[in-house]
Design brief:
The complex is a heterodimer of chains A (607) and B (220).
Chain A lengths: L3 H8 L9 H8 L2 E6 L4 E2 L6 E4 L3 E5 L5 E5 L4 E2 L1 H6 L6 E6 L1 E6 L1 H10 L1 H19 L10 H4 L6 E2 L5 H11 L3 E6 L2 E7 H9 L9 H4 L1 E2 L4 E2 L4 H11 L3 E6 L2 E7 H9 L2 H10 L3 H8 L2 H10 L4 H27 L6 E6 H4 L11 E5 L5 H20 L17 E3 H13 L3 H10 L2 E6 L1 H15 L3 H11 L24 E2 L1 H19 L6 H10 L5 H27 L7 E2 L6 H25 L4
Parallel strand pairs in A: 9-10, 13-14, 17-18
Antiparallel strand pairs in A: 1-8, 2-7, 3-6, 3-8, 4-5, 4-7, 10-11, 11-12, 14-15, 16-17, 16-19, 20-21
Helix pairs in contact in A: 1-2, 4-5, 12-15, 14-15, 15-17, 18-20, 21-22, 22-23, 22-24, 22-25, 23-24, 24-25
Chain B lengths: L2 H4 L5 H10 L14 E8 L9 E10 L2 E3 L4 E4 L10 H4 L3 H5 L4 H11 L4 E4 L2 H16 L7 E3 H11 L11 H7 L10 H17 L7 H7 L2
Parallel strand pairs in B: 1-5, 5-6
Antiparallel strand pairs in B: 1-2, 2-3, 2-4
The chains are: A alpha+beta (607), B alpha/beta (220).
Chain lengths: 607, 220
């Protein structure tokens, strides 16, 4: 007889949620329950799996650095159970809580019995390794030179406050250095203009020297960032002129400091949107690599990192479009800039190229055609300069065939769907994943509804699409060995994209199209397929896990390549994997294999 | 009514005597060394002389861990119909026919858990029924003692100067106060498990070197 309170909780906790009632009961019988009081230390060498039921626990490394917080549904101890090595961790209870202990035998039993549970804990383990790596990035060693820009925005002390205000507005800064004969004599901030000029009702033509802060505090370019923080908080100031060898170098503001410490993608995306010049956008784009490194240092999971990178691409695209509109004048009609493929799916990696097009309200004729050709060229060229290179297959808005009206696109899709030629099938994988990046959403919605209505339950189309997708297979040989392939320049390896990720993406797309599901992101598609019972919940979960594992491997591989100064490649040499990872990867490919045969049965039976 | 004469009871003296001969841990024993058996009974009524045990649930605590593998839940064949009380605990007559003889249950309890300190919420009631059951089955009963989580809670709140109402001492209210998971009401094992969690949290309010004697004094 089981304690329902425990089995009910397990049934709602991944990865045990896939067990049936009997299995849950058997699992619960291998457990015991313990109550921790806040401040109590957990014995980390117990060789059991700890499952947090209530309360909060903090995990510290041997250097007393907080690694993570554990809460309801979190686990500890699997690392020791998987590797037989114990960690020098400290686990402290922050808030009173109940934990369930699972015996080592119980853990090993369940993990051998259920592949997905094994997979789950190995993934957790992989993630945990990152938490230790993270320690190497230390924000306390950042220097001013890492943060301050070599940009000197200065004004003469004889200029009027009105000129100062105008210059601040024009240069989009909140403060100016006041310079005379190449020497710093003061600073003036927007707060000064408010409190010392406007509030005192001084005339607009009074000189800057009357209201500036003379002899301001300064900091050397080679000082540590935290010294700047100290100075700022000590004197309650937000701006510090930066000197290099006694010469004026630039300015560092409180915002710069915060930004450097947060190192958060939000800042880059915000930066991009603030740019109004070509140089500004390019300058932002040059930080993408740095952003991806910091994402990887912060062990952001691959799918979230891809999401962030795609958001950056979106922001760059939008900035270029805005720039083009400023240059060309207002557009002659409503339009939507479309993103295809991985950008549409929010799954971009570091080596993504462009896949885009234009959807126009009017037919692309005469003036309309000329205008949008110019716009497309500006944007595509701009993106290419930002490192998002031209599409080798010319799937870009700069291609006149991809600047169409709603009617034009609708006809195009109808042709692909009704007469699925080889070419149409190849294209489908790119064109059927689309998302509006800029412009009219309603124009886009009209197109999407049109496409979904055409593909839903269209057996012939789905047959060909599936048939085509099934040509790619996971790289597993007859005896469950990896089959490796070569590409032109690279060594042998497993193609994580072509023989892995794409296969899952294809399946998610085909199932979604068959039921008119409008999600585009592969993970979201899989989740919705399970919710709408198009796909078995377990199968969907398996594919989701497999997708995450592959995406993570590819992301780590790309990071590694780039840090070594190579181009990011999708070919992975299985020799670099640990035994655990190899095992896990084989499971992933098995999952794909099974899903493919199910898709074959579903869509590729004789018509 | 005289059913049990046909199956002469197990050597009754032995079962009760063995139970009595296994010493309970002394008052000085640290709680981490004490084995507890947390128990809950579902009953047809409140009078031990007239009413009966319908079901019993228990779960042992060893080294301060609730051992789920040894948790148990038994339905008891009742000599009378469940009647109105079925509304409360959802156990119906037909289920009780598949249950266990009361004496079997009592023999199992006494033989499996000698030396364990009994724990219950509102223990007085459960002990009265256990005593009566033993007298019926074995002719006499050990003198049961138990830790009462209700009394511990009463004392704790009382010392804080709270004005107590009846509802505040119900198992469900106590669980809520300690932010413990809710238990489905009136299922003997679920209640026993909830009570076990309650005991652990009550113990944790005190020093880790607390002894059994100190706990017993809180339970008065």
């Amino acid at each position: 007889m089981e304690v329902t309170e425990v089995t009910k909780f397990l049934a709602e906790t991944t990865p045990f949620d896939q067990l049936d009632a009997d299995q849950l009961q058997a699992l619960a019988r291998q457990m015991s329950v313990y109550y921790f009081r806040a401040g109590e230390e957990v014995n980390t060498d117990s060789n059991r799996l700890m499952i947090v039921r209530t309360g909060v626990f903090s995990l510290y490394s041997d250097q007393q650095q907080l690694l993570t917080k554990l809460q309801s549904g979190d686990f500890y101890g699997y690392q020791q159970l998987l590797t037989d090595l114990s960690d020098q961790d400290t686990l402290l209870c922050d808030e009173d809580g109940l934990v369930y202990w699972l015996t080592a035998e119980g853990f090993q039993q369940i993990r051998y019995q259920f592949k997905n549970i094994e997979l789950f804990f190995q993934r957790l383990f992989g993630r945990r390794l990152h938490q230790y790596k993270e320690q190497s990035t230390n924000r306390f060693t950042l220097k001013i030179s890492d943060v301050a820009k070599a940009r000197k925005v200065s004004i003469s002390p004889d200029a009027t406050v009105q000129q100062a205000a105008a210059q601040m507005t024009e240069q989009r800064v909140s403060s100016l250095l006041v310079e005379q004969n190449n020497k710093l004599v003061g600073i003036i901030t927007d707060r000064d203009l408010r409190s010392r000029v406007v509030a005192e009702a001084l005339p607009a033509d009074c000189p800057v020297s009357d209201v500036m802060t003379s002899k301001p505090h300064t900091i050397d370019l080679h000082a540590y960032l935290f010294e700047a923080v100290q100075l700022m908080s000590q004197h309650n100031i937000h701006h510090l002129p930066v000197l290099r060898d006694e010469h004026l170098f630039g300015m560092i503001t409180a915002t710069d400091v915060i930004r450097a410490q947060q190192d958060h993608p939000v800042y880059l995306i915000g930066e991009i949107h603030r740019q109004h010049s070509e140089e500004g956008i390019l300058q932002c784009a040059s930080q993408i690599l740095h952003l991806s490194q910091s994402l990887s240092n912060q062990q952001v999971p691959a799918h979230e990192a891809s999401h962030v990178l795609t958001t950056v691409t979106d922001a760059l695209t939008q900035s270029w479009i805005k720039l083009a509109l400023k240059r060309l004048g207002p557009a002659p009609c409503v339009f939507t800039w479309l993103g295809f493929g991985s950008q549409a799916r929010m799954e971009q990696g570091l080596n993504a190229d462009q896949d885009n097009a234009l959807l126009l309200e009017k037919e692309p004729e005469g003036e309309v055609a000329v205008y949008f050709e110019q716009l497309a060229n500006i944007v595509c060229d701009g993106l290419n300069e930002c490192g998002i290179v031209y599409c080798p297959g010319n799937i870009m808005a700069s291609n006149p065939e991809l600047r169409l009206s709603l009617k034009g696109w609708s006809k195009q899709f109808a042709r692909w769907i009704q007469t699925p030629t080889q070419e149409a099938l190849l294209k489908s994988s790119i064109f059927f994943d689309l998302r509006p990046i800029y412009g009219s959403k309603s124009l886009f919605n009209a197109l999407q509804q049109d496409i979904l209505a055409r593909t839903k339950d269209k057996a012939v189309f789905l047959y060909h699409l599936s048939h085509n997708a099934l040509k790619g297979t996971p790289p597993l040989g007859f005896f469950k060995t990896f089959t490796l392939e070569r590409d032109g320049k690279q060594k042998k390896g497993l193609d994580l994209k072509k023989r892995g990720l794409i296969l899952i993406t294809d399946m998610a797309r085909i199932y979604s199209l068959s039921k008119g599901i409008s999600a585009i992101n592969t993970r979201q598609r899989l989740i919705q397929l399970a919710q709408q019972k198009v796909m078995d919940a377990k199968d969907s979960q398996n594919l989701l896990d497999a997708f995450d594992v592959l995406a993570q491997l590819r992301w780590d591989k790309h990071q590694h390549d780039v840090s070594q100064g190579h181009e990011a490649s999708n070919l992975l040499d299985p020799a670099v994997l640990s035994g655990l990872q190899r095992h896990q990867l084989k499971d992933v490919f098995e999952v794909i294999n099974q899903a493919q045969s199910q898709m074959k049965y579903r869509f590729c039976r004789e018509l | 009514m005289f059913g049990w004469f046909k199956n002469p009871p197990l050597p009754m003296n032995e079962i009760v005597r063995n139970y009595e001969n296994t010493p309970q841990p002394s008052a000085k024993t640290a709680l981490s060394e004490v084995n507890f058996l947390v128990l809950d009974l579902e009953l047809t009524g409140l009078d031990a002389k007239k009413d009966h045990i319908i079901s019993a649930g228990w779960v042992p605590i060893r080294r301060q861990e609730i051992m789920l593998g040894d948790s148990a839940h038994y339905l008891v064949k009742s000599p009378v119909g469940v009647g109105q009380s079925a509304v409360i605990h959802g156990v119906h007559d037909h289920q009780l026919k598949t249950g266990m003889e009361l004496c079997e249950l009592m023999a199992m309890l006494l033989q499996s858990y000698p030396g364990y300190v009994l724990v219950a919420h509102h223990a007085q009631m459960d002990l009265a029924f256990l005593t009566m059951a033993c007298e019926r089955c074995f002719g006499r009963s050990p003198k049961f003692k138990a830790i009462d989580t209700l009394k511990i809670e009463w004392q704790r709140l009382h010392n804080k100067g709270k004005v107590l109402t009846r509802d505040m001492l119900k198992l469900a209210s106590c669980l809520e106060r300690y932010q413990l998971p809710k238990a489905p009401q009136h299922h003997a094992l679920a209640d026993a498990f909830a009570c076990a969690q309650l005991l652990l949290s009550q113990i944790r309010q005190h020093s880790s070197s607390m002894t059994l004697g100190e706990l017993q004094s809180l339970s008065r």
